[in-house]
């Protein structure tokens, strides 16, 4: 997995003997990430008991690899888009007995497990229903000038349309308490879901926080062209929808 951090470098912070979190369900939209998904899942399963991948019509064996790595896998028969995969995963996780929090987590290794754990801890400590990860609350993440400009524009549009005040509205790392998750009913299949989910969560009136996270722009993700292309797609979808 050239260019990918190991599960430990992605943020394994669990002390020896520490119990895994059984009340947190991690939801991962998955599409053609066969070379990296096992490491992502293995890192998460060191600290949580439940990881569910929604395979969105992958053609490279991603679903089978995810299952072998220990995740539950829900399959879309063909590619419906990240928004649809996220809705399927949230819908699945929020119906599980004992579920307290849902963490949305990217499949490509850009998110750190240690950040997800800290966000869940913050939600519990401060009784927050939603914790949004933000790469712009500190200077650890270096997305590049053009991507940063596009993302900042998307944040401005999102804050204008949702009434929330966020610094990074399109970060895929989020913690959503189950009562808030019940309000999520995404209709935007593709990138515009990132604004739609903020709008729906904001309408709950439940308390929210932001938490500084580091997004790891790896050689792998840059080679796929995800970094800038996804940002441009977000703006295009915001304008169209």
Backbone shape: globular
Write down the CATH class: Alpha Beta
Remind me, CATH topology? Answer: Spore Coat Polysaccharide Biosynthesis Protein SpsA, Chain A
Q: Helicity range of the residues?
A: 25-40%
> What is the name of the CATH architecture?
Alpha-Beta Complex
Uncertain residue ranges: 1-15
Number of strands: 7
Largest sheet, if any?
Answer: 7 strands, mixed
Structural class: alpha/beta
Strand percentage lies at 15-25%
> What is the terminal-to-terminal distance?
37 Å
String of helices and strands: EHEHEHEHEHEHHEHH
**Annotation field: number of helices:** 9
Supply Rg. 16 Å
Mean pLDDT: 84
CATH superfamily: Spore Coat Polysaccharide Biosynthesis Protein SpsA, Chain A
Q: What's the structural domain tally?
A: 1
Biggest sheet: strands side by side, in what order?
3-2-1-4-6-5-7
